[in-house]
Amino acid sequence: MKRLSCLLLGILLAFSLCACQQAAPSSGEAPDQQAITEEATEYFNQMMDGDFETFFNALPQGVQDNISAETIQETWEEEVDKLGGLPENTSPDVSCYVPEHSDQIRVEFVIPCDKGNFKVFINYFPDGSLYNYVIWKNETK
Question: Could you say which DSSP state residue 114 is in?
Fold first, then answer.
């Protein structure tokens, strides 16, 4: 009797584990790059309009601990000034890709200016959550 109940319990446990595995979402699914591009574009456009706080608040806590919305804005404005300002009524060239030797997803914004290209990278974790950003520093002559 004891063997029979152990056998039944073992079978029940095996079925429970199989059911849990099938119900778990697949972590191998790639995030929707179109949705990531749209989200990053919304952040970029908000910053173009002077709203750096919304993007700052969306960044992971570890990034927020090391910067501020004001720091993002100052870096943005310094780079724009260094490049001679952004052209009026222009839209950035936007691309979304996975950089070589990385698993991050990068959305790149480029606006050609008089003295170089203004570039902003908004990076995402492989699961589609926001990771960090880079305002590209151009070398000026």
Answer: T
